[in-house]
Amino acid sequence: MRIALMATCLADAMFPRAAQATVVLLERLGHEVVFPTGQTCCGQMHVNTGYQREALPLVRHHVEVFERALEEGAGAVVAPSGSCVGSVRHQHAGLALDAGDEALAGRATEVAHRTYELSELLVDVLGVVDVGARYARRVTYHPTCHSLRMLHVGDKPLRLLRAVRDIDLVELPAADQCCGFGGTFALKNADTSTAMLADKLAAVATTGAQVVTAGDSSCLMHIGGGLSRAGSGTRTVHLAEILAGEGWEASL
Amino acid sequence: MTRAASSTFLGMPVALPLAGERGTLRGEHPFPEAARAALANGQLRRNLGHATRTIRGKRAAVVAEVPDWEELRDAGAAVKDDVLARLPELLEQFEAAFTARGGHVHWARDADEANRIVTELITAAGSEDDLVRQVVKVKSMATQEIGLNEALAEAGIAAVETDLAELIVQLADDKPSHILVPAIHRNRAEIRRIFLEHMPGVDPALTEEPRVLAMAARAYLRRTFLAARVAISGANFGVAETGTLAVVESEGNGRMCLTLPQTLITVMGIEKLVPTWRDLEVFLQLLPRSSTGERMNPYTSLWTGVVPGDGPQDVHVVLLDNGRTAALADRVGRAALRCIRCSACLNVCPVYERTGGHAYGSVYPGPIGAVLTPQLAGMHGDDDPVDTLPYASSLCGACYEVCPVKIDIPALLVHLRARHVEGERARRRLPTPERMAMATAAWGMRSPGRFAAGERSMRAGRLLARGGRIRHLPPPLSAWTASRDLPAPPQQTFRQWWAGRSGTPS
Lengths: 252, 506
What we know:
The complex is a heterodimer. Chain A is of the alpha/beta class.
């Protein structure tokens, strides 16, 4: 299948490895990955902070870019992020409707119908659970809020991880609790966000994991920022990097 | 022919009334500031963490037993949406039915009107040489919302809370911090101390054993019930079809208030209606499991007007707007009026669990408070603490997942954030730094060329990094680096890597 990659602005600018690993993984599974270079940002930060007016042109831009990719033969759009897919699926059309642009709402819905978070694409669309990766580390998985409660990915990421060879997958206590990121919430309510993060870090520490993984670079940036500040030896690694398997960087 | 006769005067469009300032919806401090103080209180964090974890677990267990829980939620949402769509008609139907059974209906635009009506009714219940100086109260959010106790105190009338937790709060001259468990921020040792210091006639040998504490309250309340001539209540539901009011509770103290006194005055928000008696079936399943984690609440009291010779003979209901019509006028925001005050959203909210209810500054705390308070009280902008409430959430979605009437609280929060931003846009000619940053970011993100250029300029951030991580950033990003590091921006962005790989320019 030809798959259009929605890298997400955050991964593009700050965490390219998540997007690169997505490319390597999908190509290894025999698919063609295209990266529509016109893409920028889905507008979620603006929407969630209350700047709907500023977000609307970003939504229109996103729809135009990925609509074209789908017209040019891509069968699906994938993003290594539950949060950004959540925005595409649950915010874009509504935003267009609020602005009175029914045509854009319809087009946004079409794009949203064919946009998937990575674990959804792998399990639901491509029908793979064992992606053939090996990863010999102790890993704990944090289900990000938007993948869990907006997209309802359920145990798909865990099924993918369980199929990875040599992985020592340990359960994260109170895994479904938010890490406290919440976009601009982490700045506007930094103290509350930090209190939530502290509890998440304590839960991670009990697992003895070398690696915390998740499907969202944003939440990992938050958890990783806390781990780094605490001088912890535990690292954060995006789900795509584990599924791409050890040594995936060699194929870059 | 006069001009008035030639055209129908439809009235001037008016601003819909908001909750009066007399009430208890607007706090004194912005949420982040109030939260900071609460977060520093370790005892509070432990009390709340323990209590919310316990209720969360109980709720999850009893909800899992119900095979058609999702269908019940859908039904609850649908019934409430129907009520909101037909509110004027159903209110009049309720009024007619309640009146036909010997009850009296009063309409209150806001807190001040409601308080005045209740005060007058209490005064009328006594005589000139035998004034009613004390009334008993059933736990009620509506009367908390309008600040009734304070208004009655000004009129020389003492209102005694008879719900155990409300009593604890009242004796301590404290504020409720939870919709259902108003003293959730207190532990046993604190409650013992409050009783010893403030409960009239309490046994000085009081221990902190729960049963001993409950018996002390029981003895005190029994004396109060038997002397009361007037009771004040709220209502969980009002049935339009029959004119019936309903209160559900756990302790039976509400039942004492609803049956013993001669006069019963109920204050009910206009959105509390259900169309028919049968609709109670849905809510009497949803509410106890969502709120206390019980299969069924121990006491369900239903009354329809007056039954001669049995129970209160002078029965009133005050139908309260206090900002509800304004909320109803918001196409998205009105979903908050489905709320049945179960407080499941509070118990699962990671923000509420850590800050407690007082940080919200409103009698409605937690996620539902953050979407209800701004609509009832209005967001006045500038430094209005109410404007900070829609931002008091990480949008994790746990609230929506448990809401028995499926209020999409995260979506409502986002909607109210937009209303705040639009309000600020209209109020301020000069944009705030945040608005400028957002506008600049959006401008940059509208074009792939500008976006890529912006990414390249971020590489300068590498200069701030030591050992691959950034530990200090200037404001407003210092709020991030106060407690977390940020990785150094990468050598190469994804699109640069892609361009090099595919040989096309980025």
